[in-house]
């Protein structure tokens, strides 16, 4: 899969990618895990835990932004064997949340060779939209 072009990805690659993300220190800190992973489509989940609450007793916006950012990286990398870097992430916080599990998914808006635009959203267990984001990501060839 060298070259980062659009091509079918193998089940082995998707298993490796799941492990790559789930073993990252930041995902472990936040409690993020893969819920679903297919080529170009993914859902990740994150528990609302006391360590992620702000002084109002609600999930901190930074934690919500982290899952919105993370799902974009997962979706891009599930389609192409590349590395990515966030250039810009514009977030909207829609509803507060203080308990449960959050689920994030993303949809590609424009798949460029070097820059990719992706929308993401995070919902709670009842389907309430907690936040959304538009991400601009740099596509980096693997070294």
From TrEMBL:
Residues making up the signal peptide according to the UniProt record: none
Protein's UniProt keywords contain tRNA-binding: no
CDD domains referenced in this protein's UniProt entry, alphabetically: PaaI_thioesterase
All copies of domain Thioesterase, residue ranges: 56-128
CC annotations in GO: cytosol
Pfam families in alphabetical order: 4HBT
InterPro entries, per the entry: HotDog_dom_sf (IPR029069), PAAI_dom (IPR003736), Thioestr_dom (IPR006683)
Keyword field: Hydrolase
Top-rank lineage group of the source organism: Bacteria
One Gene Ontology MF term: 1,4-dihydroxy-2-naphthoyl-CoA thioesterase activity
The keyword Zinc-finger belongs to this UniProt entry's keyword annotation: no
Family, similarity comment: Belongs to the thioesterase PaaI family.
PANTHER family with a match to the protein in the record: 1,4-DIHYDROXY-2-NAPHTHOYL-COA THIOESTERASE 1
Protein name, per record: PaaI family thioesterase
Organism of origin: Cytobacillus horneckiae
């Amino acid at each position: 899969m060298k070259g980062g072009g659009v091509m079918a990805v193998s089940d082995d690659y998707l298993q490796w990618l799941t492990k790559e993300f789930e073993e990252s220190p930041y995902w472990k800190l936040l409690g993020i895990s893969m819920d679903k992973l297919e080529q170009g489509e993914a859902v990740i989940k994150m528990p609302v835990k006391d360590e992620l609450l702000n002084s109002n007793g609600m999930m901190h916006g930074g934690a919500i932004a982290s899952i919105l950012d993370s799902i974009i990286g997962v979706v891009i990398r599930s389609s192409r064997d590349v590395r990515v870097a966030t250039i810009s992430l514009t977030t909207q916080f829609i509803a507060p949340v203080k308990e449960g599990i959050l689920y994030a998914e993303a949809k590609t808006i424009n798949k460029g060779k070097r820059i990719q635009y992706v929308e993401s959203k995070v919902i709670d267990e009842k389907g309430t939209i907690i936040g959304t984001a538009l991400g601009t990501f740099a596509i980096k060839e693997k070294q």
